[in-house]
Design goal:
Blueprint: E1 2-8, H1 15-23, E2 30-36, H2 43-49, E3 53-56, H3 60-70, E4 75-79, E5 83-84, H4 89-99, E6 104-110, H5 114-130, E7 141-145, H6 146-151, H7 163-172, E8 177-187, H8 190-195, H9 197-213, H10 231-236
Parallel strand pairs: 1-2, 1-4, 2-3, 6-8
Antiparallel strand pairs: 4-7, 5-8, 6-7
């Protein structure tokens, strides 16, 4: 069984797109767990209407861990709310995951916008494939065996940015890691559009440098916030 864990905070605009894409998959044996960090919009109601199990979450590392604690599956797919799964995404990637005898994996990214698709291809996909065996990369989505998740103690909840990178690199030390090539995940580039293409990629680049030289980023030095897009909504609720 596959458990799909989605950390959320005010995702009423994007979550339905993800959940609709999950419904279209040719995979019957799965559950969806939404780990919500206290949404003020309709996120929780939408998740429940789609038949998801909702648990209390927090910032992304905590949300993913809380979702994993509730997971019943042998495999866990950790996925951001602002992505869309192409048809046959789960079936084909799960088949590749098992045929390659992997314990955890990341995915290649794509975007419907030509510019952002080019950006993902050359700044994430190619580097991920090139460093697959020596320096695992991950962004937006990770597939892992539940057993590996338990062995490494889940995500480090002290990390401010790059918890996915830390997770796959720790996991790769005790299990087999790979980049799945079957079907790319569609990423909706809202952070790039709001924060700026250069600024966003620079934060990811600096995160890599910090992790390699100093270890996981546990301070707010890179000013990377979880769903700051909902700031105006929070202010309107006061």
């Amino acid at each position: 069984m596959l458990s799909i864990v989605v950390p959320t905070l005010n995702e009423e605009k994007y979550l339905p797109l993800l959940l609709d894409s999950i419904r279209r998959q040719n995979t019957a044996d799965y559950e969806v767990i939404v780990a919500d960090a206290g949404s003020l919009d309709k996120t929780v109601m939408l998740a429940e209407n789609y038949g998801c199990r909702v648990v209390a979450g927090g910032v992304p590392p905590k949300g993913k861990n809380e979702g994993a604690r509730a997971a019943k599956g042998n495999f866990i797919l950790f996925i951001d709310a602002d992505v869309v799964l192409p048809d046959d995404f789960l079936a084909k990637n799960l088949k590749e995951f098992e045929s390659r005898n992997l314990d955890l994996a990341s995915f290649m990214l794509a975007a419907k916008n030509i510019f952002y698709n080019f950006s993902f291809k050359f700044l994430f996909n190619f580097p991920s494939l090139a460093s697959e065996k020596i320096l695992p990369q991950a962004m937006s989505i990770i597939l892992a065996k539940n057993s590996i998740h338990q062995k490494i103690g889940g995500f480090n909840e002290e990390i401010k940015i790059g918890e996915d990178l830390d997770y796959v690199r720790r996991g790769a030390k005790i299990g087999k890691f790979g980049v799945l090539r079957s079907v790319k995940v569609i990423t909706l580039p809202r952070r790039f559009q709001q924060d700026g293409w250069i600024v966003t990629w620079m934060k990811y680049f600096l995160c890599q440098i910090c992790m390699i030289s100093l270890g996981p980023v546990k301070s707010d030095i890179l000013k990377y916030k979880f769903n700051h897009y909902s700031k105006s909504l929070k202010n309107s609720q006061k």
